[in-house]
Write a structure and sequence with these properties.
Radius of gyration: 16 Å
Helix content: 40-55%
CATH class: Alpha Beta
Strand content: 15-25%
Number of strands: 8
Shape: globular
CATH topology: Rossmann fold
Structural class: alpha/beta
Largest sheet: 6 strands, parallel
Order of helices and strands: EHEHEHEEHEHHEHEH
Strand order of the largest sheet: 3-2-6-7-1-8
């Protein structure tokens, strides 16, 4: 899990995460909002990762559209999650070379203050990691947790991850990860 203060720091960290995965021969899956993906893509290209190659092992999915397919009446639907996200992870993780995923699906719920659904989705990611082999980076805006009343939500979400980090340039994210 990584806390970001700004889209540029998100793009910087995610591009490094994806480039590291490419170096390890992983298939890359980016589940991001269109605006964030364009920025991430620009960082990837500046760092020499060509992504327009038809043989490139990269899948990009619009986070908002995927989320829409996973919910019913505003609540995550387990069957829909299995059919969409679960099916995608099963297929991509079966390919040789491993799988590396960046996702901001949880961020969409946190943005609405719906930490219960963000936590449920984090639990689903953990369920998928028990079934399939892949590495996932969940991105959250640090601003969602700046209000002290959201501290319990940050702790609950952080407890569902192996690590929580922020870049040194993200002062709010760094402060939140060290307190």
């Amino acid at each position: 899990m990584q806390l970001f203060d700004a889209p540029r720091s998100l793009a910087d960290a995610v591009s490094h995460f994806l480039i590291e995965g490419r170096a390890q021969g992983n298939h890359l899956l980016a589940i991001a909002r269109a605006s964030n993906w364009e920025l991430i893509r620009a960082y990837l290209e500046r760092r020499g990762l060509a992504i327009d190659d038809a043989t490139d092992p990269l899948t990009v999915v619009d986070a908002r559209k995927l989320r829409t397919r996973m919910v019913r009446r505003g609540v995550l639907d387990p069957s829909r999650m299995d059919d969409t996200l679960g099916g995608m992870i099963a297929e991509l993780s079966a390919a040789s070379g491993g799988l590396r995923v960046y996702s901001e699906l949880v961020e969409l719920f946190a943005e609405e203050g719906n930490f219960e659904q963000a936590g449920a989705l984090e639990d689903y990611w953990n369920h998928l990691q028990e079934k399939y082999r892949f590495t996932v980076l969940c991105g959250y805006s640090a601003a969602h947790f700046a209000d002290p009343k959201n501290s319990p939500h940050l702790r609950a979400i952080a407890d569902r991850h192996g690590a929580i980090k922020s870049q040194s340039s993200d002062s709010l994210g760094t402060w939140l990860t060290t307190r």
